[in-house]
């Protein structure tokens, strides 16, 4: 993967550095493209056949181009000066030349022999410089012979290959007993093989190609200094932290423990194996059926989780698998969308119940939204603003379901017990906490989980605080409905205050230990931005649940199988308004020109398309009576899919794509997707199994477990502070 360096990043990397480019017109092109990363306003002007200096005095960066079109005595003398110590050596030297030698000597074999002699005399000097500086020899790009002018016709790809072979052979053998320190820069040559046809003169690369070459050169030198997450080349694997080492030990012991337990259990099973009755030939069955113990479930779950986490680490932290950049095209996004839509429609079944937003329907809704979001991420569609705005609505719809689902549960059941709270928090956060430990990432990095966790707690506190108003109490007196609306109004007031008071928001979440959860890169701005982007939609979900359940209680809605939700006239009017609203939002989102302006409006208007979709999906009785089992299956593991994609489907913390099978993109996507979905499903099962163990229904046992979990997090905070002190 190639990190695209911004101006300030490039300057930070190259501060107090001197870079020298030595060679012909092709090296001059590379020089210009490199300098334009630091200063995009730098112009290609002046006499081309002379030295060209560049200096950024503020950043103290100096880049020089030295005109030496041939590998000869002149180039040797230039390099020799740096080896003698009287002149300061450049920190980076980029050299290369050959086409002038071919051109001037008309491609003669004598010229090639002279080139070999000259580069042999320069090789020891370059090797000496490479001990203290980064030295790169640029291999010659191929040419497009049909476009070459008459005075360049002797420059053929056959001769260029001969010169490259000579350079590689001599420079690599310049040291007898060790590997050469002079690095071969062959990237430009590989790029030219694909793009030289777009050249204006057949010799020089098109601008986009040389910009890529310059950016790769910047990656080669700067990645090891700045260590960008999406710069996968040329930087060492980060060392394991103390917490990661302890996690590795824990999972290793869990695997060993489970294997010992399995062997003992299997031997005991063999002893109790039913024997065959010799007379009847029938097996005498054992009456006692040993139940699976919680210890076995615990060890088995951590054993599987340990193996899965090892795979996560190998995919996105170890330099084991390749990673590639995303390149968005309309076809890469819309064709998979159409494909999964067809599959979803094909696999449909009747629902068990026909209520609005029944369980099968919400699972289906989560499923198709999650699949669309996954395609959006892997195709890099965030660069296309209309798609980005529609995906924002899907994220908002998830939060809408959070408000709707949790409000409905508390309103109907009235269960504000600690067991329910702990169960939800465990299921939401278990995987993310493990990944924070294993992948050495902050909690806020997985921004959606903190978002739904905080909103769940907001819903819980809003409804659990005195006076606790639930459906059973409200049915006896309509005054309680008014009381609940006052609670929701107060919640909306608090949301508005925090949304327009960034200082107050940041003060709250910068308090220890909240800061440990919500800080990213040393501040909580990212958390404020994420929270603010969908600030009203959970409230909308709660309000919708309240109105729907009130109408349902008063039997205003017809939720029988095949029946429209309202009378025919009202249903048709609402359907028409919903379709128009849905399309109006899509037209507005598609006409967005500025992301910042559209994001400012999004919190207020996203609910329009969400409500329109709910009404279109639920007003017709036949639509409410069926659901897609294909989408619903994915909906049940939607949270795991969203989190796992960060490391085992995408790569470099979602900035790139994981490459398990190089050279075959289609097969790579098929294989990585299959593994990714299987892992997400397995993690969902593990989370459910561990939830029953860590969150028991018995309150006394639960309090003991919570004390252990609190001690675990205290230990984690202590170890984290030790790591920070070391850094």
From TrEMBL:
<feature type="transmembrane region" description="Helical">
    <location>
        <begin position="572"/>
        <end position="589"/>
    </location>
</feature>
<dbReference type="Pfam" id="PF07779">
    <property type="entry name" value="Cas1_AcylT"/>
</dbReference>
<dbReference type="GO" id="GO:0000139">
    <property type="term" value="C:Golgi membrane"/>
</dbReference>
<feature type="transmembrane region" description="Helical">
    <location>
        <begin position="446"/>
        <end position="466"/>
    </location>
</feature>
<dbReference type="InterPro" id="IPR012419">
    <property type="entry name" value="Cas1_AcylTrans_dom"/>
</dbReference>
<feature type="transmembrane region" description="Helical">
    <location>
        <begin position="297"/>
        <end position="315"/>
    </location>
</feature>
<keyword id="KW-0333">Golgi apparatus</keyword>
<keyword id="KW-1133">Transmembrane helix</keyword>
<comment type="similarity">
    <text>Belongs to the PC-esterase family. CASD1 subfamily.</text>
</comment>
<keyword id="KW-0472">Membrane</keyword>
<dbReference type="GO" id="GO:0047186">
    <property type="term" value="F:N-acetylneuraminate 9-O-acetyltransferase activity"/>
</dbReference>
<keyword id="KW-0812">Transmembrane</keyword>
<feature type="domain" description="Cas1p 10 TM acyl transferase">
    <location>
        <begin position="227"/>
        <end position="706"/>
    </location>
</feature>
<feature type="transmembrane region" description="Helical">
    <location>
        <begin position="702"/>
        <end position="722"/>
    </location>
</feature>
<keyword id="KW-0012">Acyltransferase</keyword>
<feature type="transmembrane region" description="Helical">
    <location>
        <begin position="424"/>
        <end position="440"/>
    </location>
</feature>
<protein>
    <recommendedName>
        <fullName>N-acetylneuraminate (7)9-O-acetyltransferase</fullName>
        <ecNumber>2.3.1.45</ecNumber>
    </recommendedName>
</protein>
<feature type="transmembrane region" description="Helical">
    <location>
        <begin position="478"/>
        <end position="500"/>
    </location>
</feature>
<feature type="transmembrane region" description="Helical">
    <location>
        <begin position="657"/>
        <end position="681"/>
    </location>
</feature>
<feature type="transmembrane region" description="Helical">
    <location>
        <begin position="533"/>
        <end position="551"/>
    </location>
</feature>
<feature type="transmembrane region" description="Helical">
    <location>
        <begin position="631"/>
        <end position="651"/>
    </location>
</feature>
<feature type="transmembrane region" description="Helical">
    <location>
        <begin position="327"/>
        <end position="347"/>
    </location>
</feature>
<dbReference type="GO" id="GO:0005975">
    <property type="term" value="P:carbohydrate metabolic process"/>
</dbReference>
<feature type="transmembrane region" description="Helical">
    <location>
        <begin position="242"/>
        <end position="264"/>
    </location>
</feature>
<keyword id="KW-0808">Transferase</keyword>
<feature type="transmembrane region" description="Helical">
    <location>
        <begin position="368"/>
        <end position="389"/>
    </location>
</feature>
<keyword id="KW-0325">Glycoprotein</keyword>
